[in-house]
Design brief:
The protein has 377 residues and is mainly alpha-helical. 56% of the residues lie in helices and 6% in strands. The longest helix has 18 residues, at 351-368.
Amino acid sequence: MKYQPSRDIPLAVRELKDLSPSKIVLWILNKRNDERTSQSVTMWFKEHPEIYDELAKEIIQGAPTERQAVDVGLFENGAFREIPSVKLWVRDLTNSNAKEATIDHFTRTLKRVCKGEVQKDVVIENWSWKHPDRLTLEDAKDFIFQVKSRKLRSREWRLVLRNFLRSKGLVLKKSDISGELEEDAGKYATLRVTPEKRDAIFRFLEARNHEAYLISYFGYTTAARLTAALTAESQNLDHLDRVLYVFEKAVTGKAKKRVKKYLTNTLYEQIKDRQGRIFNIEADELNGLLREAYKEIIPEIADMIPMPFHFWRHLFAQDMLRASHWNYALVAEIGNWSVEALRKYYGAPTEEDRVQFVKETLPKLEAQIALPLEVEA
């Protein structure tokens, strides 16, 4: 494991129960096979006085260790939301008109960071549990490093951590924690399944949980994002035009806007009499079922799908672009993309696509041409 001062120095202090730089550098050499000077540890302490004071309190005064202080029921039931920093964060999110499903997702994501859980049931080795009140920018950077080192997508983690740290009053630079798209944007442009396998996934979901099937059908036929689908409400259903309005992030990713989703007759008949939340399922249960379905039906690409529900939005774009003969402007309007993002993520028509389009379209144009009368010789 590569040496990281913000992780390893506090870890060494807690294991050694000693603040001696000479002992800490020996620990680093033994544990990380990295030779450091005592002066480098001293300088790190000077640059992080708050962490030094916390460690000194733990070691010198015999206060509980970080994990002991965090371990007592902090992550159980509703206790996490009652922590002062989290409570203020939830207040700020609520005041910014964030939906409860979004707030719940954000707080659960932060909880996983504090526990060092990069994936379900996968915890970072030697990660000391973090108390949200004392979560630092360095902690956040360490966690993101761990996510990236496992070749996992990090943007969702980055967005949540950036939002939380800012709510604590930290002024962040772009170089600290960026909210930009992953470097591999466009990597999944060819990730697509046949209609037969798509329908097999729907049948798999219907057999296990009707709500999982219904919201997935909605996701595929409208390109709705997960948060928008989970927070869809009956009061925003237009029965006359059979349209459901949802709230999604704008193209810039900064503000939410009201987006129109056209419903198929089948979907409308299923949800027209519902009250309150349209889809009665939570994100964790839905994503778990989707992961099962993908591993069962499309194992060849299951591990390539970064976000289970977002796969439906992706498939919508793939299928709609082909159905519209790659009309980026039209599909972008329908799915709430920018044309640039649509091109970046979903590629372009192949030479075979272009040839097929010309062969199908030219005869239609030719039939509409009023040819001039023949001129007598």
